[in-house]
Amino acid sequence: MDKTRPHKRSTIHDVARLAGLSVATVSRYMNGTATVSDEKASRISAAIHELDYLPRSAAQDLARNATKTIGLLLPTISGSFFAPLLRGVERGATEEGFSLLVHSTQIQSKGLIKKGLAEHNTDGLLVFAASLDTAELTRLHFIDFPVVLLHQTSPTGLEIPYVTVENRKGVRALMDHLIEVHNLRRIAHLRGPAGHEDTYWREQGYQEALQVHNIPFDPALVEIGGFNTELSRVAMRNILEKNLPLDAVFAGDDESASGAMMELRLSGFRVPEDIAVVGFDDLELAVHLTPALTTVHSPIEQVAYQAVQQLVRLIRTGEADAATLLPTHIVIRQSCGCVLDQKQLYLNQKV
Description:
Strands 3-2-4-5-6-13 form a six-stranded parallel β-sheet, sandwiched between helices. A four-stranded parallel β-sheet has the order 8-7-9-10, with helices on both faces. Helix 1 packs across helix 3 (38-51). By secondary structure, it is an alpha/beta fold. It has two domains: 3-160 and 302-329, Rossmann fold (3-Layer(aba) Sandwich); 167-294 and 332-349, 3-Layer(aba) Sandwich (Rossmann fold), CATH 3.40.50. It is built from 13 helices and 14 strands.
């Protein structure tokens, strides 16, 4: 794979000159020691990009003051998805001899994030999708601080290593199963939160499958489930209230599928006899739903584990794989309409 490597850069004086600002202002921006206006931050960022500036002194200081600690930034720590992710990070950190600090950005201001979990007390950061804005990622990148992204690609021009899963192909396989095996064509979609890359690629897989099978896309069958059980109940209710023909529901993740199934039952529908429901992630809850959930298996724990390996490699050698994309596959259970005997069901639960 492509590697990310540090390169020699221009000086901070060059950046300040091009941006038309003082060296002190540029230094405050890069070190996060004081607030810099958006207008000045934009000028500094543009100058940094134009000069291809990356200070080496910051990396040398970090090497001399290693904390043997890595940080994990998450938007929230609630929900079934984060349990296997945390297991993977913890396993990887322990094996590599690093301690782990975990912060939720949902309950912290940007200033507190900088003080609580950044270059001052960790050797590198794992950043989950939507946990840190582009301005802060840019600052960390241009002080040569090791960062690996989880479930999001690098912002343009930064070349930050990332680890994620193959969303689109997994959804295509799931949709193909509904359409080709069960002859279902009116398939609703409960999409994830706006701005989330998993949301985008899963919806792309959904629409691509419809197009390949000559099924018109109906925007009235798409609602935001937000990767959340309660939001998905509301989204499912909204779709049902439109009184449109409906064969199946592709929920953006398993928690959304759980919410959809609850709402369908409350509305008098049987799953899968009346409406099939499928999900994404293959969380532990998938096998405990009634009926057991057909879904896409996403290697959540392995993504986290490999992200730690990439981060530690970046810390120790200054390089890492630019992109790591792990495969997904569908797991057939009963919520799609398949009839499995007990042996088949047991095997699929163990996938």
